[in-house]
Amino acid sequence: FLPPCFINSSQKPPPPSGPVSPVELIVDRVDSSSSESCDLHVTCRTHNAHISSTVSCFDRVCIQEGGERPEVTTSGASLQVHLLNNVIICNHSNQVHRTHDLIHAEQLCYQSTGTIVTPVFVLKGRDLLLKLDADPPERVLIVDWKINKTVTLRIASNGKPNVLRNSTGGFEFPENKFSVILKNVQEVDSGVYSAEAGTLQRDKLAEYKVTVQGPVSPVELIVDRVDNSSESCDLHVTCRTHNSNINSTFSCVDWFCSQEGGERPEVTTSGASLQVYLSNNVIICNHSNQVHWTHDFDITEHLCPSNPAEHLCSDHAGSVFLVKMVVFSVGLIIMVSAVITVHLVDFKKHQQRNGCQTRHAAREESSHLKVTF
């Protein structure tokens, strides 16, 4: 027989472990009151959930207004939209997997005419493909690739390149005409890359704002204090890296936990995002930039019982176990005593029987001797 608390404990949802679905960041509306300010209304969505937020930009400085708190999807993952260095990031993650989409706020607010500058974020050490937005006009025989307004590479229409200044890891040229691959990019390779037609008009054919980022440092989730009572418990935690930290408190009552403070991400000195949040009763400490992600987590049920009945379960289980051990021990002692008693009685009977036989043999031997003499 199992007490009700053991039966109910199976109803606790396990933490998610599979990959999360792709995510999409959609710009619903752009409200621009002047050339210096605008409001971006965006939606971060998956196939079965969404979250909305507004980002306001003034003089190329953007802030987020609402939507910072993550939403838990039907699959138990976390869906969130947040701002990092004027980049709007739509993030869908659980403890083992992450998908994301992003848009540069400046691209939407301040790029009204001309060629659109495409923001590109790439992990240090990777290769980066740069290509034209569309095929150039037939009259274009040469395309110049510029890095920060300096002509670095010139490609002829026959595909033959002329490298004027090399990049850190060098160039590679794919089959696509006028395209180029930057090899083994480093932070110093960050900048504006533009392709211009080799004509008098110098028409701009493509432009990329490339940001090379290194991997973020490991992160650690620390439980500073646990305030436990018969009805609830409060968890005071710190999410920290080697040079930054963020604090938060989580309150749990009857298997349900909520976060109290600390939802807004902190920007570290390296420009990454540090955040602690709750997803499916799992506390997640997340350190990320646009190209890399590290995290640490702990399950609230491991830190304090989320149901007061669990205290009763533990006490009841301990009492039942103790009673069973006492009964088993007493029964074992009785069995051993009975076996010993039986053996002692049998041993005494055996001794008595042997004694009688010895005396009878002695009398017979004595009689035989008398007859002989």
Automatic annotation (TrEMBL):
Residues 1-20 are annotated as: Disordered. It is found in: Membrane. Its main location: membrane. SUPFAM superfamilies: Immunoglobulin (SSF48726). Keywords: Glycoprotein, Membrane, Signal, Transmembrane, Transmembrane helix. It comes from the Eukaryota. The chain crosses the membrane at residues 321-345. GO terms for cellular component: membrane. This is Immunoglobulin subtype domain-containing protein. It comes from Gasterosteus aculeatus aculeatus.
